[in-house]
Design goal:
Elements (H helix, E strand, L loop, with lengths): L7 E4 L2 H13 L5 E4 L5 E6 L2 E6 L2 H8 L6 E3 L5 H13 L5 E3 L7 H12 L7 H23 L8 H13 L4 E9 L2 E8 L7 E3 L6 H11 L5 H10 L3 E2 L12 H8 L8 H8 L8 E2 L6 H14 L6 E6 L2 E7 L6 E3 L2 H10 L9 H11 L1 E2 L2 E2 L1 H14 L1 H6 L1 H11 L4 H4 L9 E2 L3 H11 L2
Parallel strand pairs: 1-2, 1-5, 5-6
Antiparallel strand pairs: 3-4, 4-17, 7-8, 7-14, 8-13, 9-12, 10-11, 12-13, 15-16
Helix pairs in contact: 3-5, 6-14, 7-12, 12-13
Length: 443
């Protein structure tokens, strides 16, 4: 029997929880799998104090009932997932907690992941959790500031990032297909019409969510990358995590051998050495590709990991770079929808989370556009208000500012995200963080 029996496993998605429970049962692992269905708490103002309030009281009470029992926390390995993990730990203070990350939930993947768990290879990341809390608190602070200005701007961390992108990059709503000869093979890509000729073509890195969203946005097609990846993951067709994540999947040996290296076995250490300082991301085919997005993943991965393949490349222009893939050159032009234009701009920003880009594109296409007409006055006003009240965000970017705050508050991490269980409306000890936000984001 695999070690892990008798423990409670907690994930975020109910669909993943159901399939994980099913496959664990087939493996003979006696355990219970529960889903949080997203965040457990949000932040709000109450009597001018920031407080933490429950989102789903039923799930919170179900988690409290596990107090004292062994718990494996398998939320997503991104800031949001790490914040949920800390909330679970605080709700069950008498439990033994372990961190686990399932890159794939096939029977083999579960077995290998639990073996890694039993070796203690996964850790909680409180800095990531604090970063997620800071983003929420910062947005709360911004909404209060924005309401004072009669909503002639849209001050949020995403709104500011998008306004910065519009200011720096300009409109990216007209694209055209261009073709290039790369090592004797025709590669095509959709490129903003204002971009000049390409400077160079380089080798691609392994597939990441951000690349897939950028490619989809410039194609003018419907933004359903996250949904398609989730479906492929649940059906055991790919191994991935929702965000850009720098660990190879547990089943990488078999995957890379069969689908990216022409049958030549490669081990984790060899792969890491081969890729040297490039990123290693967990999106790989676990089965022969069926859907279009699975074929894109296969083509990009095998090109990045084997010099024998030339399925795609990165085309570099003065204004940016895009993925180019083998295909017929038809030289078509198209106008991007507001959602696709925003998705491209957000995917090009270092201050956005890949798992939220498509949802944000849908939201901000109705805020920054009136139909297909771009509300340039609102974008300009948002940028001006951000420059006035949050100059460091404009100058350095969200991630840089948050990382600075985390370093300053490292000694207070535990208290910063602590829940006071005796309060129905739980106060979060973030006064010092708010003070830092006011100090760092104001003139």
């Amino acid at each position: 029997m695999i070690l892990g029996s008798g423990k409670n496993i907690i994930v975020e998605s109910p669909k993943i929880a159901a399939l994980l429970q099913h496959n664990l049962f087939k493996l003979g692992v006696i355990t219970s799998v529960m889903a949080t269905s997203g965040h457990l708490y949000d932040y709000t103002f109450h009597n001018n104090n920031i407080v933490q309030q429950p989102i789903n009281k039923t799930i919170i009470e179900d988690l409290r009932a596990l107090n004292g029992q062994p718990i494996i926390i398998a939320t997503d390995p991104d800031p949001q997932g790490d914040l949920i993990a800390e909330h679970i730990k605080n709700l069950t203070p008498d439990s033994e907690h372990g961190r686990c990350i399932f890159n794939d939930i096939s029977e083999i993947g579960i077995t290998l992941t639990l073996n890694r768990y039993n070796k203690g290879e996964f850790d909680f990341d409180q800095n990531q959790a604090l970063k997620a809390a800071l983003i929420k608190v910062t947005n709360l602070h911004m909404r209060k500031m924005s309401s004072k200005s009669n909503r002639n701007n849209y001050l949020t961390t995403t709104g500011i990032s998008l306004a910065k992108q519009f200011d720096a990059v300009g409109r990216i709503n007209q694209v055209q297909q261009r073709g290039f000869n790369v090592e004797g093979v025709q590669h095509v890509c959709n490129v903003p019409t204002q971009w000049h000729d390409a400077n160079a073509a380089t080798k691609v890195n392994p597939t990441i969510t951000r690349d897939l969203i950028t490619d989809r946005a410039l194609s003018g097609r419907k933004l359903t990358v996250a949904e398609e990846l989730q479906d492929a993951f649940i059906n055991g067709r790919i191994s991935y995590t929702r965000t850009d994540f720098k660990f190879l999947p547990s089943i990488a040996d078999q995957t890379l051998s069969e689908y990216t290296l022409s049958g030549e076995l490669i081990h984790h250490e060899q792969h890491l050495d081969f890729q040297s300082n490039t990123a290693h991301y967990a999106i790989y085919n676990l089965a022969h590709p069926i859907t279009p997005i699975e074929y894109l993943i296969k083509e990009q991965n095998r090109t990045s990991l084997n010099h024998s393949f030339n399925d795609c490349s990165v085309m570099h222009f003065d204004s940016g770079s895009v993925l180019a893939r083998t295909g017929s050159f038809i030289k078509n032009e198209l106008t991007l929808s507001p959602q696709n234009e925003i998705a491209y701009l957000l995917a090009s920003s270092k201050d956005t989370s890949p798992s939220n880009i498509e949802l944000s594109a849908k939201k901000y296409s109705t805020l920054f556009f009136n139909g297909n007409h771009c509300n340039t006055k609102l974008i300009s006003s948002t940028l001006k208000q951000a420059e006035k009240h949050y100059p460091k965000l404009i100058e350095f970017g969200l991630n840089h500012v948050l990382n600075e705050l985390i370093v300053q508050q490292e000694k207070n991490i535990d208290s910063d995200i602590q829940i006071k269980p005796e309060n129905e409306l739980r106060t979060v000890k973030l006064d010092n963080i708010i003070e830092e936000i006011n100090t760092n984001f104001s003139i």
